[in-house]
Amino acid sequence: MQHLQEMHLSSSVFSLSRYGINTSVRIGSGIMLEELEALSGHDTYIAVSGKVLSLHNELSQWLSNNRRVHYSPVDDGERCKSLSSYEGMVSSLLSLGFPRGGIIAYIGGGTLGDLAGFVSATYKRGTGFFAFPTTLLSSVDSSIGGKNALNFDSLKNAVGTIWNPSRIIIDLDFLATLPRDELLNGVSEIVKYAILKDPELLDERGFLNLVKNDHSGSAEIVERSIRIKAGFISGDIDDRGSTRIFLNFGHTFGHALEAVSQNAIPHGRGVAAGMIFETKLACDLGLCGENTLHRVVSMIRDSGLDLPGLENVDPTMMMRYVLNDKKSRDGILVIPYPVRPGKMDLAEVRQETFEKSLKEFIVSGYGPI
Question: Is 0.85 surpassed by the pTM of this model?
Answer without folding.
Answer: yes
